[in-house]
Amino acid sequence: MNNTFIKNAIITLSLLFGGSDFLLSNNQSESTFLFALKHSVNPLNIEKSREFLTVDNTTIQEFINTYNIENIEPWLQGANENDNDGEIYLNRIYRVYVDQNRSDMNYLISVMDAKTETIYAEPEYLRKPLYVPNDPGFPQQCSMESVKATQAWDFWDIPNIMPSDGQEILLASVDTGVDYTHPDLVESIWVNQGEIPVYITDDQELFQIIDENGDGKLSSTEMISPVIMTDLNEDGLVNLKDIFMEGSPYLDSSDNDGNGYADDLIGWDSAGKWSGNDPDPDPFPKVDGVATDGGTWAHGSHVAGILSATSDNGIGMASTVFNGKIISIKTSTDGQNTDDPGISNGYDGILYAAKAGYYAGTFAIINNSWGGGGYSNSEQSVINTAHNTYGAVVVASAGNGSSTGNEEQYETGYPASYENVISVCAIGCNGNWGGWASYHPTVDLAAPGESIYSAIIGTGYASWNGSSMAGPNAASAIGLLQAFYPDMDNDQLIERILNTADRFIYDRNPEYETCNGYNGTDCLGKGMVDPYKAIGVEIAPNLDILSFSVIEDAENADGDGVVNPGEQFALNITIENEEGWQDATGITAVLSTNYEGVSLLWNGNYLEDLSAGESDVAEFAFTLSNDIALGDIEFNVLATATGPDNYAFEANLTFNVNVSLNQSGFPADVSGELISSAAIIDFDNDGVNEIISSDKGGFIHVFEMDGTEWVDDTYPFYTEDQNWGSPAIGNLDGNVFDDVVISSKNGHIYIFSSTQADTPGELLLDFDSGGFLTATPALGDIDGDGYDEIVFGQYGGDRLLYAINIDGTNVSGFPVELDEKVQRGAALSDFNGNGKMDIIVGTDDEFVHLIYDDGTIAWSYETGGDIRVAPSILELNSGEKIVLVGSKDDNFYALNSDGSLRFMVETEDDITTEASIIDIEGVGPVVFFASSNVLYAVETDGEIYGEWMIDIGADITSSIVFSKINNATYVMFGDESGKAHMYHILGDSYNNFPIVYSFPFKGSPTILDSDNDGDLELIIGSTQTLTNIDIKESGSVEGLWATHRSNMKRDGHYLSNLDALDISDEIMDYEFALNNAYPNPFNPSTTIGFSIPYSMDIVLNVYDISGRLVKTLVDETKYAGFHSCVWDGRDQNGNSVSNGLYIYKLISNQNNSISNKIILLK
Asked: Are residues 1030 and 1082 located together in one domain of the fold?
């Protein structure tokens, strides 16, 4: 695209509009036109009263007065000075209103166009929306989108002009019969006008009463007019079933239309009850104790719904043909005492359908969703007769693969493989081959055949799979093509529908273009049936987006190649006029989006004229706000053009641009769940960090900061078992390079070196402990040699606690025979003051142990449940240490250095994360942990900090980490709903958070400036990917708990600069207090916390505002301390309560009570 072309286009438009004899196109407005002022002319100040219209421009005012202009208004209400397309400024384009009865519209346009103040004046064209029917089940019909039905419908002005108005499009369901009383089929049932008895048609007075719409024909609903029809079968209803009962005025046993079938009013039952020897005119499927509404007897009704369900009737479904008629034909005998009948008289049905169409003055499109193996000359002759003599289009389903129906098969099947039959194979709505159907060079077309929604017997609907559904999808598309080209014969329709099929299916399934290794080509046919192209290829261009690119603005973006909030971008869209369509002239492209936070700087383009197969680039620009919601921005390009004979082409072309905070190259795929935390190290000493992750798929991955993965003879490194623990980094041998230590469930410890050698990441040691390892190894100086040793406990085997050196030798006093399972990592700190690290470890035997550096057990504390989270150590500024650990007994414990209980927090569920610690000035160290979906923060006296007892709404199994940004403290973690959270320490979410990802977060985050660009990155693992989130602000994590186990040594130790709050007793003093519920208002649940000073009987009740008891939440003896419970908004009987105000009240057996208010807001 170039500005020269735009200017030339403007001049050309001016010349075209200059003559008064310019003809209005069929979609030109009769009461409005547009004009654009030059940029040098100020925007108009318009004032309109009941009697006068005035503007502050003399020339325009003179025009208003001279030609009795009714009104002028800005065309684009939101346009401003920044919105310009070269010399055209959108805020200077105006709409002029005139009396719609005037005949000089084009003269007025030419007058305004000649004004010196204007760039141009032009007609305004009425743009109709893409039509979507009002059938409620339409969104479930994926096939409609697949075959581009909605686009094809826009060749008509629905609902003002309907496809096939004035001509019936006949689609025959040759099958198990059709429930012609189904509410979504009854209005589409074909009526054989020539078979209506003469005494009805000749009685003009009677006929005119029955013919309610006065079109000279009787519809299926008019046939049952109470004027002529009663409930003859005495089922309580008057419907089409009654026309076949004895006494029906429509039955005269005569072949009135001469087609060879007597009383075939709406179709034919070629099978009858017994082997076709007793055919009859009633094509309703078998209904008895064997047949069911949704069984195989409903097959023909399901097919009929796909063929031509009544569209736009406010119920059920739509059909591609939109306005066709169903010839109902039953070809399964009632004598089959089964709910899975076969087709006994299919070719009788084909012949009937062909003749019915012919004698109706047109021809039938005959669908056959059945078949089998074996060629027959007789059957081929029936097909040839139908095609050649009666002009029918015969469609058949290619087959469901192997005899079991669940494996694809290269095969022929009949009638699909006969000459003069369109053979249709089933494919997914997205164009992907499902791997279960038949394919072969005799296949002509593909059509959707998976999860196809349609009618069944009765009033219901069902979604079925099968090539049986693909056939009618193709047949209905052919019907729509016939509706647009009523003069085409069967051969012309077939040629057009095949030649315009969409071959994109071979882009997705390339092996079937060459028949998956078998003989032949195009084994899925010519492509996906495409009525849109079949109709439009002769009359219209077809513009579509070939590609697009988003380019960062050099001055208003960070250059990382990712679309981030707060940045500015150029957007270049290549628009192609598809090969095989008509030439396009006068092309415009207008960009829009409803996505909040997007500002379009440049949104309109003129493009070069495009012949079929040519393309041009439309250039746009946009900015994003800082607080824009992350995710896919849906952009829309309104592309307009003119085709042959002034055909007005219009299409809304959509595409998505993802706005994210992802680091370029991420998320990166891994080999299994990441329940650990990534390690960050310059692994190859090239001055740039790498990310190391280990997953439950058994692989150790190394990623560069751009997401590129190391792939060589060593990496990804396969441990041959699950990896649960996080990689630990420390100095094990005293050289200048750190080492990486990783454990695996196979019982091995792997040590890798970061060196400048030719083999970075070289494996130094593979140590076999002899038992399952699920814990993260902790690194620390256990023996006082100045180097780190490796500490880990076994979950299986002899259940030992190890401390080993870099060469695999044991530290003196180790391993310790705990005989208890250690699932998670150890914490290290010097408890006995000898300068060596001591070990805190929790076990599945419910104990927390302190083990000195010589392997002796100093103390053990028994909890009430398994310890499934790693313990943490808080070392205060005074040197005092507090051990923090959660248990599966729903309690969180704080232990003093001597093993005594400092405080305990009761929760409602298992403790699911380690304790993470942050210093808060004026408060002291604050401990964060999670119990299932509730995030807690407690001070060192056991009291809840601030409002930090928050229900996140999903389980939290990752550690909580912290950062400082602009001197503010932030809390970060992931949850199992796939959300990454970032909160200010006071509880407010950070801009753009939470960020929603596709997979649950199981791993613990790491926050640091990993790529040395001055801002922070949050790296966290999910069940399938490693995510790297670019925070985009400078920050610090120095001295903070910023990764799993506090630091890369994974020692679980936090050194505080502050002291703890005073605690008067070994178990602290608590007040009798009731906390504010959180959240409040709430939906669907809220958490209520309370504390008591000593053991007592407690009742916590919820009341409505009238004082009636709604639910008792707690009624038991509670010990001193803090407690909490959850109310789920239900009463004592488990019923959901209504919106409103409720009172919750805490009552003790010591005559204490306290209450508070809460609001349920659904």
From this structure: no
3-state SS, residue 320? coil
Q: In angstroms, rounded to a whole number, what is the distance separating the alpha carbons of residues 902 and 876?
A: 14
Together in a domain, 121 and 148: no
Give the residue ranges of the chain where pLDDT is below 70.
1-27, 75-79, 125-135, 159-162, 164-166, 274-277, 289-291, 403-406, 755-758, 1061-1070, 1119-1121
C-alpha to C-alpha distance for 504 and 147, rounded to whole angstroms: 12
**pLDDT (0 to 100) of residue 405:** 55
Domain end position, chosen among 68, 90, 125: 125
What are 930-935's contacts with CB under 8 Å, separation 24+?
930/955, 930/956, 930/957, 930/960, 930/973, 931/886, 931/890, 931/892, 931/907, 932/907, 932/908, 932/956, 933/909, 933/975, 934/907, 934/908, 934/909, 934/1087, 934/1124, 934/1126, 935/960, 935/973
Choose one of 533, 566, 596: the last residue of a domain.
Answer: 533
* Cα–Cα distance list, 85 to 415, 607, 617, 636 (Å): 59, 12, 15, 18
Q: Tell me: do 422 and 450 sit in the same domain.
A: yes
Q: How far is the C-alpha of 582 from the C-alpha of 535, rounded, in Å?
A: 12
Same domain flag for 773 and 747: yes
- Determine the structural domain holding residue 1130 and report its residue range: 1073-1160
pLDDT tens-digit readout, 374-393: 888 888 888 999 999 999 99
- With residues binned 3-state (H G I as helix, E B as strand, rest as coil), the percentages for the chain, rounded to 5, are 15, 35, 50
Q: Who's near 327: CB < 8 A, 6+ residues apart?
A: 170, 171, 172, 173, 190, 266, 267, 353, 356, 357, 364
Place of tokens 């990712």: 562
How much is the pTM?
0.69
Based on the fold, state whether residues 453 and 575 are members of the same structural domain: no
List the alpha helices (DSSP H) in 375-518.
377-384, 467-484, 490-499, 504-508
Q: Find the CATH number of the domain harbouring 95.
A: 3.30.70
Burial 421-454 (b: 16+ CB within 10 A, else e): bbbbbbbbbebebeebbbbbbbbbbbbbbbebbb
**Residue from 632, 635, 630 nearest 599 by CA:** 635
- Which runs of consecutive H residues, i.e. helices, occur in 979-1127? none
Which tens digits make up the pLDDT trace of 1087-1112?
888 888 877 889 999 999 988 999 99
1, HSE (Cβ side, Cα atoms, 13 Å): 24
Q: Determine the residue type at 602.
A: W
Q: Which residue has the tokens 């649960």?
A: 724
Query: Do strands 872-875 and 1053-1055 pair parallel, antiparallel, or not at all (unpaired)?
Result: parallel
Residue 1107 bridge partners (DSSP): none
List helix spans (H) across 343-489.
346-359, 377-384, 467-484
Same-domain status, 46 and 173: no
Q: What is the pLDDT of residue 286?
A: 82
**244 within domain boundaries:** no
User: Tokens 């690194």 sit at which residue?
Assistant: 779
Under a CB-based contact definition with an 8 Å cutoff, are residues 903 and 1068 in contact?
A: yes
CATH number at residue 822: 2.130.10.10
Q: Which residues contact 182 (CB under 8 A, 6 or more apart)?
A: 301, 305, 455, 457, 458, 459
**CATH number of 1126's domain:** 2.60.40.4070
* Cβ atoms 143, 452 nearer than 8 A: yes
Token pair for 993: 């958070």
Question: How far is C-alpha 855 from the chain's CA centre?
Answer: 55
Q: Which of 22, 34, 38 is CA-nearest to residue 98?
A: 34
Residue 898, token pair as written in the block: 């001597």
Q: Report how many domains make up the chain.
A: 5
CB 692 within 8 A of CB 683: yes
Q: Which of 578, 424, 450, 427 is nearest to 508 (CA)?
A: 427
Residues 729, 679 share a domain: yes
Over the stretch 608-636, which tens digit does the pLDDT of each residue have? 999 999 999 999 999 999 989 999 999 99
Q: Which residues contact 11 (CB under 8 A, 6 or more apart)?
A: none
Same domain as 605, residue 496: no
